[in-house]
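User: Reviewer 2 asked us to show a designed sequence for the structure in our supplementary figure. I'm pasting the structure tokens here. Could you produce the per-position amino acids so we can include them in the response letter?
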């Protein structure tokens, strides 16, 4: 059995059919499928370990706590954070960004006239929380522009960074186009000219390549577990100790206090200050299992396979007449985002592909500004993971040709 077949066997959902055809799952940027290791860890938690964490003297609670804290250390190593308490469990990227945005305004750390910079390539979850922060505080949102290849125009940073800039927030990899942004260069330029906090949205990077938060030298880094083979409802906010200490909490409640009384409450230390309430214990432990799964594959093998898929898909799709790939000439990972010119809209193509068992995402991908820039309503997006095959891409290309004939 080939190595790839062995990997595919670990994903039970890949055995199912859709509309009578074998499932070809190419919607990994939305959420990845889950390997047995993750599914079984989640089931084992409920069969053998279920108890609330950090509060029980009883054995089961202590075991659940140990497992969850072990998962935190796995994530710490996975992203190379300096300390385990710099790793905060969240329910995903969206929650991580909102947490930071609310903590900043709760702490009065953003004021009227301050500036926040994001990029044109952001997912709505790295736009709307900042717009809401601006509404609460009177701060101003500025946007790094892109060119027709989807490449960020970094001179904007030199022209716009100033002592008013309080936070710069951008993704490592664009979900709509798969473009890998020059993040190290961006961070160097920002640090040279300003003391702004740097937040990176790593949701589409962490599933594909090694990320080292210390090497990147970002202040805050967020990602979702469910896009990297872990259960839904999991995610991480990493922050440098100094930054997390400076930020006040977002949610108040159990687990996040040191002492609570009606005359005043004091907060717990890191990471618990940011983890109010009962966490997603099963999910967080299973996120640890997803890290084990990715480590068992190895980042080099993962990237090599996914680059092969990307290059093959790009060349196969470009053989199709009147097919435009967005961000074609930019450095990319994991995503081909395209439209058939003069043959229906993206959802028409997606529906025909679905009839063939092929799952792609269509529409604006929660990145309406990018769609507006290209003057389109949406794209068809095929996004890859470790279990996809070159044969699946052949079937995708055939399906697109079929859709083109039907919609022309
Ligand atoms: N940031 C990026 C870059 C993303 O790709 C996504 C989700 C998010 C933030 C939000 O993550 P969540 O886990 O909190 O929802 N992206 C997509 C997508 O491309 N298709 O569906 C969800």
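Assistant: Here is a per-position design you can include in the supplement:
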């Amino acid at each position: 059995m080939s190595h790839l077949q062995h990997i595919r066997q670990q994903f039970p959902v890949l055995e199912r059919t859709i509309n009578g055809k074998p499932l070809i799952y190419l919607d990994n940027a939305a959420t990845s499928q889950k390997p047995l290791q993750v599914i079984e860890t989640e089931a084992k938690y409920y069969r053998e370990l279920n108890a609330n964490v950090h509060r029980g003297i009883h054995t089961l609670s202590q075991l659940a706590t140990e497992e969850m804290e072990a998962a935190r250390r796995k994530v710490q190593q996975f992203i190379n954070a300096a300390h385990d308490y710099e790793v905060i469990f969240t329910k995903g990227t969206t929650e991580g960004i909102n947490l930071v945005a609310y903590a900043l305004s709760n702490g009065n750390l953003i004021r009227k006239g301050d500036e926040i910079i994001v990029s044109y390539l952001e997912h709505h979850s790295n736009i709307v929380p900042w717009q809401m922060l601006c509404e609460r505080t009177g701060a101003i949102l500025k946007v790094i522009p892109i060119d027709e290849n989807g490449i960020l125009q970094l001179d904007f940073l030199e022209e716009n960074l100033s002592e008013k800039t309080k936070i710069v927030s951008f993704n490592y990899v664009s979900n709509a186009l798969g473009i890998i942004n020059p993040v190290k260069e961006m961070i160097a330029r920002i640090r040279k000219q300003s003391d702004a906090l740097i937040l990176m949205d790593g949701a589409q990077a962490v599933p594909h390549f090694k990320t080292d938060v210390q090497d990147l030298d970002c202040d805050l880094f967020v990602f979702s577990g469910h896009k990297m083979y872990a259960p839904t409802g999991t995610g991480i906010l990493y922050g440098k100790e100094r930054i997390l200490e400076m930020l006040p909490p977002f949610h108040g409640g159990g687990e996040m206090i040191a002492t609570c009384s009606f005359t005043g409450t004091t907060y717990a230390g890191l990471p618990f200050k940011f983890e109010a309430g009962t966490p997603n214990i099963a999910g967080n432990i299973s996120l640890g299992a997803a890290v084990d799964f990715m480590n068992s594959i190895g980042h080099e093998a993962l990237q090599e396979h996914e680059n092969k898929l990307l290059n093959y898909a790009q060349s196969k799709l470009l053989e199709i007449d009147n097919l435009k790939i967005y961000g074609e000439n930019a450095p990319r990972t994991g995503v081909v985002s395209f439209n058939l010119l003069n043959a229906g809209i993206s959802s028409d193509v997606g529906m025909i592909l679905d009839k063939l068992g092929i799952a792609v995402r269509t529409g604006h991908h929660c990145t309406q500004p990018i769609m507006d820039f290209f003057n389109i309503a949406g794209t068809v997006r095929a996004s890859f993971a470790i279990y996809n095959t070159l044969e699946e891409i052949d079937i995708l290309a055939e399906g697109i040709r079929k859709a083109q004939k039907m919609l022309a």
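For the response letter, you might also mention the following. The pocket of 7TS is lined by residues 29-30, 92-94, 123, 125-126, 171, 175, 201, 203-204, 224, 361, 365-366 (CB under 6 Å). The domain at 3-27+298-407 is CATH 3.90.1150.10 (Aspartate Aminotransferase, domain 1).
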